[in-house]
Write a structure and sequence with these properties.
The chain is α+β, with helices and mostly antiparallel strands. It has one domain. The protein has two helices and six strands, in the order βββαββαβ. Strands 1, 2, 3, 4, 5 and 6 form a six-stranded mixed beta sheet that branches. It is flat. It starts with a strand and ends with a strand.
Length: 93
């Protein structure tokens, strides 16, 4: 079994320009399919993740299949420095 890691980029509107403000990581868990099935899952999840309004935008940058025990770099950093994960990646399914 695997999970799908989706990485996004966010932007905030500063009136005269859009400023990149990092992004988020999302997981689709308990995934059992192949690359084609994963692509379909990401397309379905797109409506739950992406946002585009006058003040804020969030877009999917990338996605990949990862093992069930995979930790994002942010999760791993929290575990290494604090001993626990305070801010896990968001699970959308």
């Amino acid at each position: 079994m695997a999970k799908i890691l989706i990485t996004t980029q966010t932007y905030e509107n500063y009136g005269y320009r859009w400023k990149p403000k990092g992004g988020s990581d999302y997981f689709i868990t308990n995934f059992k399919g192949d690359f084609e099935a994963a692509t379909k899952e990401v397309i379905i999840a797109k409506d739950q993740i992406e946002c585009n309004n006058d003040m804020y935008k969030e877009y999917i940058l990338n996605w990949q299949l990862v093992p069930d025990d995979y930790l994002t770099s942010f999760e791993q950093d929290q575990l290494d420095h604090e001993g626990f994960i305070r801010f896990p990646a968001k699970v959308i399914k």
